[in-house]
Write a structure and sequence with these properties.
This is Transcription factor bHLH35-like protein. This protein is α+β, with helices and mostly antiparallel strands. It is built from 4 helices and 4 strands; from the N terminus they run ααββαββα.
Amino acid sequence: MVSSLQRRRALRRKLHILRTLTNSKSMKKSSIIVDCLLYIYKLKLKLEAIRREYSNLMAIKNAYLELMKSFQVPKEVKVEKIGERFTIRVKCNKGGNRLVSILEAFEKMGLLVLQASVSCNYNFSMEATAVAQNQQALDATDVTQLLLKAIEKQAAVDWELSKA
């Protein structure tokens, strides 16, 4: 007798929980179960819609990243000579050892880098302040030409490596 009362109470408690979860207004056991099944079906539909939306967003993200990879940044080298110092700004495509080739070019020219700021999020950019080590008579156009050659040389190396 006691166990049947406990079972009934447990069943009523579970049905009450189901009614509150599904916002069911029904009092009959069968109606509550039908409302629960309908609620589960609606949740499945919402989940599938969220999955579709997620896959669409991931496709858009991947297309955007591919577009960013194919985006070609024009090579830009600006050199200004202010007194003994050179202010150098470089922008180009990211890849390979751009920084190394630029620093090697500085070394060949006899430039000592006093300060530099480098970023390579989507492309390579660098701002540097340099001074000639041996008081050489360097011109801004000479520095510009040598930096452009160093960047193009590195771009050619990167292209050869990508073909292999």
